[in-house]
């Protein structure tokens, strides 16, 4: 029994006509009759009887049709699943956490991937939490993520790190300092990326260790707004030292914060893939 025989049976059942089924299947009526006959022989059961109204199913025919529909649906899911696996193997889908493209060159990655024309490069930028979720779901081949978290069973390698600093405008009492403690920020209006970014949680948790809740006057999704609002004197900016700071603003190191880190993340069983190793070779090295 093959899938063509099942599809042929279903068409005859639904059309109640061998001739109509033959048109849909691009077969001759004789060919359809022959396939139904072979199928009945394999099942050792009569599936149809000819009547003036057409091909009427027997009880066995009704039973076989009902169960063949669920089988066909399952087979279709299997075929689509196999196609998706094949597509995943042939496609290279890279996820970038927001902010990572400031330090990872997509151009260099594209050049490395171009050495393997059998792979089609696709990439997406999203919040770090979403990149990690897509990696876990298998939607992404690999990702460039911020922070030390990675799903269980995934390989990660640090590629880049930068200190987190306070961006201060001229005239502020802290403007002339060489470094700052988090305690210096107590009560200060802070300008920071929002809860979707690791830097927010980094600062909030470390301030909690010093016994106070930071006052985030602005929580944004655009790092450029941190510098704009800081120039306007709305507060002290908090950002990783990855953006150029234009005078008269100063970025002053914060002593107790964890660094902003970028990691390459991929399934553990693919960590030694040649393509991934070539991608890593063009990435920066942590200092």
What do these coordinates show?
The chain is an alpha/beta fold. 40% of the residues lie in helices and 24% in strands. It has helices at 3-15, 18-25, 29-43, 59-90, 106-114, 128-137, 198-209, 223-231, 274-281; strands at residues 48-51, 54-57, 91-97, 120-126, 142-146, 154-162, 164-168, 189-193, 215-220, 236-240, 250-253, 260-267. The strands form 3 sheets. Strands 4-3-5-12-6 form a 5-stranded mixed β-sheet. Strands 9-8-10-7-11 form a 5-stranded mixed β-sheet, sandwiched between helices. The longest helix has 32 residues, at 59-90. The model has no long low-confidence stretch (mean pLDDT 89).
Summarize the structure.
The protein is built from nine helices and twelve strands.
Rounded to the nearest angstrom, the radius of gyration is 31 Å
List the helices and strands in order. HHHEEHEHEHEEEEHEHEEEH
What share of residues is helical? 40-55%
- Helix vs. strand class: alpha/beta
Strands of the widest sheet, in order across it, are: 4-3-5-12-6
Give the total of beta strands.
12
Give the overall shape.
elongated
Instruction: Let me know the largest β-sheet.
Output: 5 strands, mixed
Number of helices: 9
Beta-strand content estimate? 15-25%
Mean pLDDT: 89
Q: Which spans have pLDDT < 50 for at least 5 consecutive residues?
A: none
- Spatial gap, N to C terminus: 64 Å
């Amino acid at each position: 029994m093959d899938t063509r025989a099942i599809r042929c049976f279903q068409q005859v059942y639904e059309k109640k006509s061998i001739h109509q089924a033959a048109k849909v299947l691009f077969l001759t009526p004789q060919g359809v009759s022959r396939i139904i006959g072979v199928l009945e022989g394999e099942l050792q059961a009569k599936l149809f009887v000819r009547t003036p109204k057409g091909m009427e199913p027997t009880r066995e025919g009704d039973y076989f049709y009902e169960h063949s529909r669920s089988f066909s649906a399952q087979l279709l899911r299997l075929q689509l699943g196999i196609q998706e696996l094949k597509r995943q193997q042939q496609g290279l889908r890279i996820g970038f956490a927001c902010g990572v493209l400031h330090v990872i060159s997509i151009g260099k990655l594209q050049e490395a991937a171009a050495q393997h024309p059998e792979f089609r490069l696709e990439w997406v930028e999203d919040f770090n939490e979403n990149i990690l979720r897509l990696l876990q779901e298998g939607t992404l081949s690999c990702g460039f993520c911020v922070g030390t978290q990675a799903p269980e069973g995934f390989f990660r390698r640090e590629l880049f790190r930068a200190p987190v600093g306070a961006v201060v405008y001229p005239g502020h009492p802290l403007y002339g300092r060489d470094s700052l403690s988090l305690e210096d920020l107590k009560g200060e209006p802070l300008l920071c990326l929002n809860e979707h970014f690791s830097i927010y949680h980094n600062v909030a948790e470390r301030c909690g260790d010093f016994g106070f809740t930071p006052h985030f006057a602005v929580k944004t999704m655009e790092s450029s707004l941190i510098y704009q609002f800081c120039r306007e004197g709305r507060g002290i900016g908090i950002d990783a030292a990855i953006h150029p700071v234009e005078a008269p603003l100063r970025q002053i190191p914060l002593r107790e914060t964890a660094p902003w880190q970028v990691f390459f993340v991929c399934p553990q069983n693919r960590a030694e893939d040649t393509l991934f190793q070539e991608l890593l070779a063009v990435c920066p090295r942590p200092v």
